[in-house]
Amino acid sequence: xxxxxxxxxxxxxxxxxEWFKEISSTEKQITVALSGGSTPKSLFDxxxxxxxxxxxxxxxxxxxxxxxxxxxxxxxxxxxxxKEHLFNNINIPEENIFRIKGENNPxxxxxxxxxxxxxxxxxxxxxxVFDVVILGxxxxxxxxxxxxxxxxxxxDENNCVTATHPDxxxxxxxxxxxVINAAKNVVFLVTGKNKAEKVKEIIEQPEVAERKYPAxxxxxxxxxxxxxxxEAAAEKMM
Length: 238
Fold this sequence. Notes:
The chain has 238 residues and is of the alpha/beta class. It has eight helices and eleven strands.
């Protein structure tokens, strides 16, 4: 595990981008699972501001770690957020974008997307392997769309599952733990003091935390786990 703490979101975005460019420069094509939320939105805005050619978008295939079961033009759609803040501003072929179709029946879509991962990604022991999985973390300790009240979904044998938000009841499609932990590199991008308590517990007391928080179950087989934190999210550790 590697932990980096930054004074500002701007510095976090810059540092993560340098790391990402280094990872992507070594491969002809790379596969990336994206996250929703305010921190990735800021990252996508930063990526959109970069000079053309700084990141070779044509070699990157984009997928998602989770998606809300809404239409792609709905304000809650992770795909819509990414499209508006990144894809509309860069030169990326449409065939490089593999979205979760939130407008479909959730159970059917979880099955379809799981099969898509099997066909599009390299595999190890029958599990699709991403080059990079980008994760956020909720202040309840959830990650992707695996929430504490459904923590057993983490160990589901399928690549994707349908999950339910504990408050709104909104259905979502999410990667499962086996796919996340099979990735070559897994990166948490976490900002805000409302996350600080869970960040401290997950990093400093993992054996306790993994019984309660899906984010604590992120333990990639590769051991390549990175935390990019702002000072607010890391304040309890400092």
